[in-house]
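Predict structure. Chain length: 191.
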Amino acid sequence: MLPDVAAIVLAAGRSTRWAAAGGAGPTKLVAASGGEPMVRRVAGAALASRARPVVVVLGHAEDAVRAALAGLDVRFVVNPDPARGLASSLRAGLEAVPADAAGALVLLGDMPRVGAALLDRLIEAFAARLGAEAAAPFVAGARGNPVLLGRALFARAMALDGDRGAGALVDAARLVAVEADAAALFDVDAP
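Prediction complete.
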């Protein structure tokens, strides 16, 4: 039996690179990708996986992101100070994960090509490796996203600060590597 794993969609960022590159709108996350808002595609992949609950961390452009996700079975959490960086959004998401969850998939709201199949493979690989602390996709030796943080890493992840995620924690953890395609490396920073 597979462990319960939540999904956290980080969707609180300010989209500064997007805006600097001429991107329109309040945030890149509501820009169309495959005919729907980018963040909706990411949340949809999480909902199509076996991860539950799906938690979406809001912050910058909260109303626009919330509207883009209308009707989806997601839980919203608000990062009160998204300007403090990615670590503050990760912390807000981890705080919303149920206490009985063995871990949490951390998805970036600007990676619309990641699908449910990869998310499920990460959960399965994590469950299959006794003592695993994390699972991550790899493409030709490069670690991609999303990552699965096991409960053993939560306290250290919540202590992070600034505009960085849990990459260094994942790299130093007892990590399960999962082969993936280029979707695990593709994020949107420009229109």
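Summary: The domain at 5-185 is CATH 3.90.550.10 (Spore Coat Polysaccharide Biosynthesis Protein SpsA; Chain A).
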